[in-house]
Design goal:
By secondary structure, this protein is of the alpha+beta class. The protein is built from nine helices and 17 strands. Strands 6, 7, 8, 9, 11, 12 and 13 form a seven-stranded mixed beta sheet that branches. A four-stranded antiparallel beta sheet has the order 4-3-5-10, with helices on one face. It has a four-stranded antiparallel beta sheet with strand order 14-15-16-17. The two termini are 36 Å apart.
Length: 357
């Protein structure tokens, strides 16, 4: 996979700082800055502060393409690369989990028209519970970041935060309790970079004295400096229980009782799948049209991005999904295993304990 590395290097260090675009509102939308007015110098210590907040894994990263998909780069993420991201020369995504399946932040993602409102509600609820967060606008909806005092096992972070995500119907990153063998886990777009589809960048938002949520700045530098100065970190509660210690004989949730078989084998999984509305469930993870067609969520099998939606979900008497590019099909259980990068045993335990859907 070839990526032009000359352009990002245009933002290399110059005189103790790096250049970043200063952009201001032109479209009338408070959450998307699009017009480039001048170049602005960002001090290296500010870039380092940004890195400490938003980059946990430095041995690999991803580059966003014009269609919004990502190409994974298996090489170290350099300061020049981050400078280029903040300068708008390219857009990077960062992987949340390291090789020990730990993360130093978690992100709630609401990718809907009312997503920002959902995240504001969540941010205020977390604040009432004494949990600080950082709200970032996005192309559709937004991201709500929670920064941790120290790197923490992903299973523990997810066990703590998944109930919040489930109540509001938003996604939680990381999506995996642990990395699968050879896997990279989920990624999130690094903030304050140019979104390759909207061609704009999105600021952080904060609650003003009057209660309304407003942008913390009009430039990348202002937003970056505000985040470095104001972000608070939180400790994951010790009371969170390890999901791997759950007894196999744990009670089965009532909504699954009629589909449980004593051996817990594929027969009971098939019965569970038949009892679900496959189009509705997968529709929570993938935006589907009236025919059940959408963009394939398994991007690693689309080397040039899924430019034309190739993923389709079929209901009826034979519910299944199929990717025309990957040429892979499966049932709802297969989809969940692949989406969360879990083994069938781990996925079945989640279903039995009511923590999947």
């Amino acid at each position: 996979m070839q990526v032009n590395r000359m352009r990002p290097l245009l933002a290399a260090e110059q005189g103790g700082g790096i250049w970043s675009y200063s952009k201001r509102v032109t479209s009338g939308c408070m959450c998307c800055w699009t017009e480039v007015e001048e170049m602005e110098r960002l001090p290296l210590d500010l870039v380092r502060g940004y890195t400490s907040l938003f980059v946990h894994r430095c041995d690999t990263y991803a580059v966003q393409q014009r269609d919004g998909s990502y190409w994974r780069m298996v090489e170290p993420l350099t300061m020049q690369g981050l400078c280029a991201h903040l300068a708008g020369h390219w857009t990077l995504g960062t992987y949340l989990l390291d090789q020990d399946s730990q993360c130093s932040f978690a992100v709630f993602d609401a990718d809907r028209v009312d997503g920002l409102t959902q995240l504001v509600t969540l941010a205020e609820e977390l604040r009432r519970e004494g949990i600080p967060s950082l709200l970032e606008a996005s192309r559709r909806g937004g991201h709500l970041w929670l920064h941790l005092v120290e790197a923490t096992p992903a299973w523990k972070v997810r066990a703590w935060l998944l109930p919040y995500a489930s109540v509001l119907g938003v996604e939680l990153y990381p999506k995996q309790d642990a990395l699968a063998p050879g896997g990279s886990g989920s990624l999130i777009r690094l903030p304050l970079g140019l979104h390759q589809q909207s061609r704009g960048w999105y600021p952080f938002l904060a609650r003003a004295v009057g209660g309304e949520w407003v942008s913390v700045g009009e430039t990348v530098r202002e937003c970056c400096a505000w985040a470095v100065a104001h972000v608070e970190r939180v400790v994951v509660p010790d009371a969170v229980a390890c999901p791997f210690s759950i007894e196999v004989a744990a009670s089965v949730p009532a909504h699954m009782a009629s589909h449980w078989s004593a051996d817990g084998g594929r027969g009971s999984i098939r019965a569970w799948c038949q009892a679900q509305d496959m189009v509705e469930v997968i529709g929570r993870y993938v935006v589907l049209d009236g025919r059940g067609v959408g963009s394939c969520p398994f991007k690693e099998h689309h080397h040039r991005g899924d430019r034309r939606p190739s993923f389709q979900v079929f209901g009826g008497t034979d519910p299944h999904w199929y990717c025309y590019t990957w040429r892979r099909a499966g049932d709802l259980f297969d989809f969940l295993c692949l989406y969360y990068q879990l083994t069938p045993q781990e996925s079945w335990e989640r279903l039995r304990n009511g923590t999947f859907l």
